[in-house]
Amino acid sequence: MMQDARWLAAAAALAGRARPSSRPNPGVGAILVKDGLVVARGWTQAGGRPHAEAVTLAAAGAAARGATLYVTLEPCAHKSERGPACADLVCASGVARVVIGCMDPDPRTSGAGLLRIRSAGIEACYTPSPACERSLSGYLISKRLGRPEVSLKLALSLDGCIALDSGESQWITGPQARAHTHAMRAKADAILVGGGTLRADNPRLDVRLPGIEHRSPARWVLTRGEVPEGWHALASPEAISEMSGIQYLFVEGGAAAATAFLRAGLVDRLLIYRAPILIGGRPALADFGLSRLSEAHGRWRMTERRQLGSDTLEVYETANASEPSLER
To answer: Active-site positions, per UniProt (predicted)?
Structure first.
């Protein structure tokens, strides 16, 4: 079981290469292992096809026979004009064993993929994997809750401010933290700021890292008014359920937008970049509805901490998230 968990975590790491280009399909990772060695690997390709299993099995060819296939998400069982069902490909591949890290909530597959593989005489098991769940978080939330996963990014001073009283905010954090933010943008389907931020800063919200500039997410603004060309309007945080094809939404602020999403209870993940400075300026958040201090406790758990130059990144998820805490 420990070996299974390790290989599933490796498949989950591969799945990150599929995001966000695999949309509207989930970014899935797969690894084929025989005698402790990797035979082949793959991830969902741009546009959602071919799937990770299809890529991996095609790369392995006859070498798949007798191997174990580790896949982050249950192989699909439904027919599609875009390609064969992965469960059927697995059944025909000659693999001896299949280990799945996450069951598919899509009713067209849910449980049916695993059953079809077992019916073909192949040993198949579901081994719950926090790493696989994390790699599929946007997809799982979209299927279960009908909305994207929301990550809220805040760049703060030590005293919790996002700008001077004058409004100046460039730059609170250093170049390493800003580069990391661009990497997070590249993993999102859409990025959102508030109307005040758009009017005051006219932000580009693109990805400015060499080689992945083309992965800039779609730009959205929280407003009921008109938006510039190339932008999309979101009337309220609750309207994210209407963002078709968006699994991962990255909210960058400012304070009004951040407060609105927290008040609506629609933040799944916090990325707090903290700079070692004191500025006594504009606070990051306003009142978002807590009536007692006791209500603030137990809502968030840290899942990651890392140093980025002189700045610190802390990542928090809602308290029901399953991934174990870690530090880097």
So the answer is: 53 (proton donor)
- Report the predicted TM-score, pTM, of the whole model to 2 decimal places: 0.89
Q: How far is CA 248 from the centre of its chain?
A: 6
Q: Residues forming the annotated binding site for Zn(2+)?
A: 51, 76, 86
Report the binding-site residues for NADP(+): 155, 169, 171, 197, 201, 254-260
Amino acid in position 84: P
Tokens read off for 204: 């580009």
pLDDT at 80: 78
**Binding site residues for substrate, as ranges?**
185, 205, 208, 252
Domain boundaries, the chain: 1-140, 147-318
Mention every residue, 6+ apart, whose C-beta is less than 8 A from residue 108.
Answer: 76, 77, 78
53 classed as catalytic: yes
- CA dist 205 and 218 (Å) reads 9
Cα–Cα distance, 137 to 148 (Å, whole number): 9
Among candidate residues 58, 55, 69, the one with its CA nearest the CA of residue 124:
69
> Rounded to an integer, what distance in angstroms lies between the CA atom of residue 100 and that of residue 51?
15
Cα distances (Å, whole numbers) of residue 53 to 30, 89, 120: 6, 8, 17
DSSP designation for 222:
E
Task: Kindly state the DSSP code that residue 291 receives in the 8-state scheme.
Answer: -
What's the Rg (C-alpha) of the chain?
21
Give the position of tokens 């060695």.
37
Specify the DSSP element, H or E, that contains 180. helix 175-186
Which residues, other chains included, contact 83 with Cβ-Cβ below 8 Å and sequence gap of 6+?
Answer: 49, 50, 51, 54
Q: 90-143: per-residue pLDDT in tens?
A: 999 999 999 999 999 998 999 999 999 999 999 999 999 999 999 999 999 999
> For the structural domain made of 147-318, what CATH number should be given?
3.40.430.10
Separation of alpha carbons 221 and 253, rounded Å: 10
What CATH class does 1-140 carry? Answer: alpha beta
Number of other residues whose CB lies within 10 A of the CB of residue 235: 11
